[in-house]
Amino acid sequence: MPSPPDTREVILEARDLTREFDGVKALDKFSFKLHRGEVLGLLGANGAGKTTAMNCLLGLTLPTSGELNAFGLPLQANRIQILQRSNFSSAYTALPGNLLVWQNLSVFARIYGVPNPKKKIAELMELLEISHLSKRVTGQLSAGESTRVNLVKAFLNDPELLMLDEPTASLDPDIADKVRKVVRKVQRERSIAILYTSHNMRDIEEVCDRVIFLHKGKIVREGTPADIVAQSSSDNLEDVFIKIARDGEILDEPKKDSAV
Amino acid sequence: MNFRIVSALVMRHLFLYSRTPMRMVELVFWPLVDLVVWGNVTVFIQKNSDEKFGGFILFFLGAMILWDILFRAQQGVAISFLEDVWTRNLLNIFVAPVRTAEYLSSTFFVGFLRILITCVVMSFVSWIGYSFNIFQLQWWLVPFFLNLMVFGWALGMISTALILRWGQAAESLAWAVPFFIQPVVCVFYRVEDMPSWSQPIAWLFPATPIFEGMREVMKTGTMSWSHLWVAAGLNVIYLTLAGWLFVWVLNLTRKRGLLTKFATQ
After folding, report:
1. Which of A20, A60, A103, B186 could form a disulfide with A99 if both were Cys (CB 3.0 to 4.6 A apart)?
2. pLDDT digit string (tens) for A244-253?
3. ipTM of the complex
4. Within 10 A of A25 (CB to CB), how many other CB atoms are there?
């Protein structure tokens, strides 16, 4: 019997997205849908096309061909309107290190037009357990503190779409665990659609509802983390990741004793 | 254009300047060094020339203050952009709902504030130290100020576009671009003193009629309106072309995927 049509609201959709750099395809007919309230993990080895995909989705890089829509609107033509409802955090960007934490957050609260910004910033800082950092110089924060400040910035405008690029990179297991829990809590409370990249498979298993494995710009696996493991001969997601990274389009047969 | 966003971006620079007094010192220190050198040269020439020429030579100080208006406006745009590059904040800005016009407007306003600070200090010191009153230019000072500031903004956009295109390796252009044009805009000498083949080139820049006008006002107390109209017309052309260049380069970096590399390098 065919499965019933998916009626969930599509927040972000890519259709046949292709991006070439000097004749090499970093993304090759990449298509996916991200629904409201869903966390989609984008996985792949270095150079698989995750960053290119993220950059295209943020409008930082234009695709060579294909379509990109967010909230039902073409991304390029409605970039500002879409960015007002979205946010982004990456381990590889920083808020200006020479300003105090509250100053940086106040600037972004004003950019996003956050009503009652002081209260909002205080609430989010409390949620991420960093209220004590408010008057610290941003550039003097530890990696864990800096990541959590970036997350406060990312949650400031109550985004409906959030893109998180390796949010737990360089964090110790304790802080990484806290970050994952907060992301999941806020995401569930506010039904945020999140696109999540990480090399940490624990992150993916804990946070993501569904994952896409990319290899040389193409989707080679898609499904829930549990389904992907079950459909492979591997015991866990990390092994699947390693096999895809080394062999590309894996030809494993599903495990015969799969529980799923 | 959303003025809330422009004010947020300006606020970020005000926080920065309030937290790093060295940036304020930079706004005042180099202009003062220039002022002292030119002021002393002026005093030396005054003492060794006849009365008429000695009075006229004060135009050096006027030229220096007006040149600083152009230079600080250009720096306001270019350095504001570089501050975002240096602090790896550019990506945060480009993925926020900030229009290019809003981003540029905030840098224009920062340029305006930089000019105000520098000019107030220089005008005061030149008056106290060298008895040179910039307000002897009377109300002509207003169109001089506006025209030089707008040309500085245009040069700032051109510098920024070039840095965006060629990456941080081209950072020095943020300081160099105004000095590329300084020899031909006749800051310290008249157009007619230039080699005849280069005189038409001088008139291609809106700063030239302003510096010519300044000398005319200091000498006669008035100036030809045509100088102002030429400067304003050229400024409209420069500002439009510079804005177009910036947007074109920004789109080019997006097309080539260079923007992210540049913003995170």
Report:
1. A103
2. 777 765 544 4
3. 0.84
4. 17
